[in-house]
Design a protein that fits this description.
The complex is a heterodimer.
Chain A lengths: L4 H13 L1 H11 L7 E7 L5 H16 L2 E7 L8 E3 L14 E7 L11 H10 L4 E7 L8 H4 L2 E6 L3 H4 L4 H7 L2 E4 L7 H13 L8 E4 L8 H17 L2 H30 L2 H12 L4 H14 L2
Parallel strand pairs in A: 1-5, 1-6, 2-4, 2-5, 6-7, 7-8
Helix pairs in contact in A: 1-2, 2-4, 11-12
Chain B lengths: L6 E7 L6 H12 L3 E7 L2 H10 L4 E6 L3 H14 L5 E5 L3 H9 L3 E3 L5 H12 L3
Parallel strand pairs in B: 1-2, 1-3, 3-4, 4-5
The chains are: A alpha/beta, B alpha/beta.
Chain lengths: 304, 128
């Protein structure tokens, strides 16, 4: 699958645009072992994820020789359009062909990723991009699909995070294998670190979760962060965690595929004349809920 | 617009740091369903790399400063991605507009209606 760059770029577009192409590609790659390391980077808007990735690129390429970055941004629920502005902060890397940056819009998916992100990663892996950095927006429990695809997740926050995101803290603190307090030159770093460490102390994890401080725009703390990331990856590899994660990743994706199939069929039932009549019957009391459920399940089992 | 060609690259050439115009255009395009990859002030290499790696369906250039810079970028993009439509806005004096048009670039000088720019994007990408 080692084609050239423009073939790769065009293939990624085809996958996004055409579900049949996506399926073909997934089938073609089904037997190929996944060898790339995927580092997920998530956090609230404005945390400085893109700037941090930019600062990390030199280190990443020094270790992995080549690095691909997939930056996913949300699509507008109204227009389905999107502003994809992450690339601008990463493109002056001077690393030439050793970096490949691709922007993706979420296109209606709510987990922080696009439906085709998993396939895009498979393709990048097969095209010999040994490190893939996956950047997504993450605020709390809803946007954490990045955990499904990444070997490790870095959560990027700013000082004062604890104050504003109370309700969603739980989801985000469970998502990270490493935490980064970026813009650490602002006030509130120690309080944020304390808040974080409080939440993290409640978790049982196979490896300790470290908190780093960076000022990405000034390249401060970035080298220490990269060392921390590499140390985590090495230990995780030794403990067999990366393999375990790959398996649980594939399991979660499989379940999501099944869930999606189910949802599609249920939607078909609900929008069919038959299904509509059944529901009206249940609402009128002439059909019991048990009978409605049985009818629904039979439909789902037998519909094409 | 999910299955169609809706990825647009927007870049600014030249030295003028003013970015209000392009942001408004980017938003209008987003509101019309496009996915707009904004790379800001960019040199030729960055524009070409983005046009290829992002496999965009249209390039929009906001031109400030000297037209030659934009023309260099346009020619390089046309070399690596022949047939990729390009349109341009910004501070474009008439003689510069003619040079751009000679290269097949559609020109939208200051005062152009947003609706016309959006229509052009739809026409150029074949999404309407």
């Amino acid at each position: 699958m080692a084609g050239n760059r423009s073939h790769l770029a065009r293939l990624l577009s085809q996958i996004e645009r055409n579900p049949e192409v996506e399926t073909e590609v997934r089938l073609a790659l089904a037997g190929t072992p996944a060898t790339s390391v995927v580092i997920g980077l998530t956090g609230p808007p404005g945390a400085g994820k893109s700037t941090l990735i930019s600062a990390l690129l030199n280190h990443a390429v020094a270790s992995f020789n080549k690095t691909a970055v997939l930056a996913v941004d949300p699509s507008s629920p109204f227009s389905r359009g999107a502003l994809l502005g992450d690339r601008v902060r990463m493109q002056s890397h001077g690393l030439g062909d050793r970096v490949f940056i691709r922007s993706m819009a979420s296109r209606g998916e709510t987990g922080g990723l696009a439906r085709t992100t998993a396939t895009a990663i498979q393709v990048l892996d097969a095209c010999d991009w040994p490190l893939i950095v996956l950047e997504t927006l993450g605020i709390g429990q809803v946007e954490l699909d990045v955990m499904d695809l990444a070997s490790m997740v870095a959560v990027v926050l700013n000082p004062g995070w604890g104050d504003t995101f109370q309700a969603n803290k739980a989801g985000l603190t469970e998502a990270g294998d490493v935490f980064v307090i970026n813009k650490a030159d602002k006030d509130g770093v120690q309080q944020t670190r304390a808040d974080l460490q409080d939440s993290l102390s409640l978790l049982k994890t196979p490896l300790p979760i470290n908190v780093f401080e960076t000022v990405a725009v000034k390249q401060l703390g970035v080298e220490a962060l990269w060392s921390g990331i590499e140390a985590y990856l090495k230990e995780a590899q030794q403990l067999g965690l990366l393999e375990q994660k790959r398996l649980s990743r594939r399991r979660r994706l499989l379940i999501r595929i099944l869930q999606r199939d189910f949802d599609v069929r249920m939607h078909a039932y609900l929008t069919s004349e038959h299904g509509d009549n059944q529901i009206l019957g249940a609402l009128a009391g002439s059909l019991s809920i048990e009978a409605l459920r049985a009818d629904l399940f039979e439909y789902i089992a037998n519909v094409d | 617009m999910e299955n169609s060609k809706n990825r647009i690259l927007m870049a600014k050439t030249g030295l003028d740091g003013h970015w209000r115009g392009p942001t408004i255009v980017a938003r209008a395009l987003r509101d019309a369903g496009f996915e707009v990859i904004m790379i800001g002030m960019a040199n030729t290499d960055d524009i070409v790399t983005a046009a290829v790696d992002e496999d965009v369906d249209l390039v929009g250039l906001n031109i400030g400063g000297h037209i030659d810079v934009a023309i260099r970028a346009i020619k390089r993009v046309q070399e690596v991605r022949p047939g990729l439509p390009i349109f341009a806005g910004g501070t474009i004096p008439p003689h510069a507009a003619k040079q751009l048009q000679a290269l097949g670039v559609e020109v939208y000088p200051p005062g152009s209606q947003l609706a016309d720019i959006v229509d052009a994007a739809e026409r150029l990408t074949g999404t309407k």
